[in-house]
Amino acid sequence: MPSTAAPTRRTATSRSSSSGAAAHSGRVDPAPVETTSIAPTILALLGLNPNELSAVRTEHTRTLHVAPAIH
């Protein structure tokens, strides 16, 4: 099944909401991305190794180039 391309949001800054969670503001990059890159990117941003996912290793999936949240 082919992946769907979607624009990515690249984070430039963050600000705190009333809940204390970081709310990110940034810009939308019109470059298409593969939806298969979303999970490994989230893992990388959480400090986890995306290559622990067998699909990432098998399909040689790359992470998206996004800036981590600034705390």
TrEMBL record:
Q: Taxonomically, which superkingdom?
A: Bacteria
The protein's matches in SUPFAM superfamilies, at most eight in alphabetical order, are given as:
Alkaline phosphatase-like (SSF53649)
Q: Which organism is it from?
A: Candidatus Frankia alpina
Where do the segments described as Disordered lie? 1-33
Q: Which InterPro entries match?
A: Alkaline_phosphatase_core_sf
Spell out the protein name for this chain: Uncharacterized protein
Compositional bias of type Low complexity: which residue ranges? 1-25
